[in-house]
């Protein structure tokens, strides 16, 4: 099936001081991402898995239970789901990172007149949260969907050099019956039964200045 794609831009803070101005290639060695905590109605503990690409270019998050649904007798509380994921990113000494763009993928089944919404914001521990990026879908839809949030190089927010701060991802998924037949169920997911659909967070790397 053909993916439904929408592209947006992240609203980010000014870049953090302490990193060189030019972008660096991905560092050698191992980059690891651990889940420090997971909270929310869309991602109970154990339902979100994280993996780092072999070339350190990105990491993926795969959700197994992230779905919002409305109509057809579904409880109103099922129409909005959220997930706050706090990650501990271990990077090689002398490097720092930002997240330059994010690909979200899932599946939507929206009756004519129904709507679906996906939101996301990002921040490092102790720093201000970015504004929500919002993507809306309109029924009729019965297909894969994909959205991409991007940040220009001049607006990237890097983790402070030499500090370990959690990277927090705050997402939300909604389904609304709108003007559709309220006896029919519409839903939006950010998961996959076979694990093939995931969210991809792309790194941008910089080298930290050498301390003397």
UniProtKB/TrEMBL annotation:
Pfam families: DUF4360. The keyword Ubl conjugation does not apply. The keyword Signal applies. InterPro entries: DUF4360 (IPR025649). Keywords: Signal. Residues 1-19 form the signal peptide. It comes from the Bacteria. This is DUF4360 domain-containing protein.
């Amino acid at each position: 099936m053909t993916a439904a794609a929408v592209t947006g831009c992240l609203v980010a803070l000014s870049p953090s001081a302490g990193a060189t101005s030019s972008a660096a290639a991905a560092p050698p060695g191992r980059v690891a991402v651990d889940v420090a905590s997971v909270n929310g109605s869309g991602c109970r503990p154990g339902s979100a898995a994280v993996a780092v690409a072999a070339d350190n270019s990105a990491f993926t998050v795969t959700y197994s239970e992230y779905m919002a649904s409305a109509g057809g007798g579904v409880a109103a509380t099922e129409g909005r789901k959220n997930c706050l994921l706090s990650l501990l990113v271990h990077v090689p000494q002398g490097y720092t990172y930002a997240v330059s763009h994010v690909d979200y993928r899932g599946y939507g089944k929206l009756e004519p007149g129904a709507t679906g919404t996906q939101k996301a914001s990002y921040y490092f521990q102790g720093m201000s949260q970015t504004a929500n990026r919002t993507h809306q879908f309109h029924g009729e839809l019965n297909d894969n969907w994909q959205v991409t949030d991007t940040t220009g190089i001049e607006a990237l927010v890097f983790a402070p050099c030499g500090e370990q701060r959690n990277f927090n991802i705050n997402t939300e998924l909604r389904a609304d019956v709108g003007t559709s037949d309220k006896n029919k169920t519409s839903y939006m997911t950010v998961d996959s039964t076979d694990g093939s659909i995931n969210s991809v967070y792309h790194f941008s790397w910089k080298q930290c200045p050498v301390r003397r």
